[in-house]
């Protein structure tokens, strides 16, 4: 039986993450309020952002940028701007 959460990204009950995938306070907030599906969607966008902007995960400024994008996407529904990427129409 998977854990259910009320996903703030999709505004519906959905399967929650199996464990906290992100550290700290934000990680706990994601674990408690974001579904597996929404987090998986974010991970695809994160990969595109890292590749397109050639982010270095050893750089604190790049990590901070990515974290801000993640928070905006998951909790505010803001699409990150990815060059040449058009999100599918809902």
UniProtKB/TrEMBL annotation:
Gene3D superfamilies: Fe(II) trafficking protein YggX (1.10.3880.10)
Keyword Transferase among UniProt keywords: no
Domain of life: Bacteria
Keyword terms, alphabetized: Iron
Endpoints of the signal sequence: none
InterPro entries (UniProt xref): Fe_traffick_prot_YggX, Fe_traffick_prot_YggX_sf
One record GO biological process: cellular response to oxidative stress
Name of the protein in question: Probable Fe(2+)-trafficking protein
Functional summary from the UniProt entry: Could be a mediator in iron transactions between iron acquisition and iron-requiring processes, such as synthesis and/or repair of Fe-S clusters in biosynthetic enzymes. Necessary to maintain high levels of aconitase under oxidative stress.
SUPFAM superfamilies: YggX-like
Family label: Belongs to the Fe(2+)-trafficking protein family.
Gene Ontology molecular function terms on file: iron ion binding
GO annotation, cellular component aspect: cytosol
